[in-house]
Amino acid sequence: MADLSVLTGGRAGDGINSAGLLVSHLFNRMGYSTYMYFDYPSLIKGGHNFTITRAADTPIGACRERVDVVLALNQDTIDLHRDLMHDRTVVIFNSGKAAGDGQGVPVQDILKEEQAPAVMGNSCMIGALAGATGIPFTVVEEVFRKQIPRGLGKNLAVARKGFASVKQVHRVEPRGQEPFPLLSGNEAIGLGLLHGGLDAYVAYPMTPTSNLLHFLAGVAEDYPLTVVHPENEISVILMAHGLAYAGKRTAVGTSGGGFCLMTESFSMAGTNEVPVVVVMGQRTGPSTGLPTYTGQSDLHFMLHAGQGEFPRLVVAPGDITQACTWSARALSLAWSCQVPAIILVDKTLCEGITPLLEGAFPHLPEGECPAAPPGGPYRRYAITDSGISPMLHPPVPGSAVKVNSYIHDEAGITTERGDVTVLLTGKRLRKGETLRRETGVMDPVVSFGRDGAATTLLCWGSTLPVCREVAGRLGIRGVQPVVLSPFPYEQLKAALSGTERVIAVEENALGQLRMLCARHDIAVDAAVLKFDGRPFAVEELERRLAEVA
Amino acid sequence: MSPQTLITDARNTWCPGCGNFTIQFALRNAIQKLVDEGVPLENIVLVTGIGCHAKMADYLNINSFYSIHGRTIPVATGIKLANPDLTVLCCAGDGDAYAEGLDHLIFAAKRNSDITVIIHNNRVYGLTTGQYTPTSPLGFRGRSTPGGTVEAPFNPLSLMLTSGAGFIARGTTRRMKELGPLISQGLMHRGFAFIDVLQICASYFNVSELYDRQGYTLSGHDPADFEAACRKAEEWDYNTDSPIAFGLFYREEKPVFEEQFAHRRVSVAGREEQIAKILDAKR
Question: Model pTM?
Answer without folding.
Answer: 0.97
